[in-house]
Design a protein that fits this description.
Elements lengths: L7 H12 L7 E5 L8 E5 L10 H15 L16
Antiparallel strand pairs: 1-2
Length: about 80
């Protein structure tokens, strides 16, 4: 079964999610320093897309503590409300 997307952005995001942490995005190769071992480990690159369940949640966890430092919720007795006419 094949699907066709009319929105190019949706198609781009889905292609990124499909290729996340695969050889398609490239990799770093790590080798053991022990000459007898010679094990290789491939660390595949991530898509870093905010819609990705693996990458997006990591970025959100890293960003939230930084953003919450400047918030003063609970320390003030008023909230600012901005409207447009």
């Amino acid at each position: 079964m094949s699907y066709s997307f009319k929105n190019p952005h949706v198609e781009h995001v889905l292609n990124q999610l499909k290729s996340c942490r695969t050889a398609q995005l490239g990799y770093h190769l790590y080798k053991c320093n022990n000459n007898e071992c010679m094990k290789l480990k491939y660390q595949y690159h991530s898509c870093r897309n905010r819609h990705c369940p693996a990458c997006g949640s990591m970025q959100k966890e890293q960003c939230l503590p930084v953003g919450r430092q400047g918030l003063m919720i609970g320390e003030v007795s008023y909230y600012r409300l901005a409207t447009t006419i």
